[in-house]
Fold Molybdenum cofactor sulfurase.
Amino acid sequence: MHHGVASGINQKHAATQLTVLFDRVVGNSEADSKHHGGLDRVLHHFPREHYGQYRRWDLMSSFRDAPSMGENISTVGLNEAQVNIGDIVQIGDVTLQVTQPRSPCFKLNVQFEHPKFALAMQESRMCGWFYRVLSEGDIKPSDSIYLIERKTDISVAQAMQIYFLPEFNAEQYQVLLACEGLAQSWVESLQRRLAQQSIEDWAMRLYGKAS
């Protein structure tokens, strides 16, 4: 429990090695398995330099650094504009595929003691991204990241922008749906929007309460 909210975000600590399986990182767990984790979100990769920007925006009540976002991988020099949905990458022994940006939720507001942190992440698109695991193995801090194959021309930042457009946009949703490797939960969400011709209410996710 963290300020009355069930969360595994503060269990993270610097590690000398990540042992990555198809369905989990050994030693890692989620407090809410419905909205976190799963085969399309085994690892969360977050650019460390974003911490500095969030601090400059006064969105953190105190100095925080990696892995306070709950990320599994922290790097410098790689961001959401450079990584595309469907990218297949090699890190150490592990082969991964980029599936989706992080969808920020109200637990970030609790973590950083700011009521609009999740909204700021959604609007800035400084969210990091998730991977599914294509081959198991170990990742060490010294390992390099190699792009093996690029499947789409839609970046993580573009995917974030399309998914969180303030107005319903069927044409843009179809562009995102065409992305090979897109997380199944995002596929289903976009299909629901197209069927209902409307966007779901984001208030519960962003603020922990209905609008």
User: Anything to note?
Assistant: Helices lie at 49-56, 107-112, 117-124, 156-163, 170-177, 184-196, 203-207. The chain has a mean pLDDT of 93. Residues 9 and 75 are 18 Å apart (CA to CA). The radius of gyration is 17 Å.
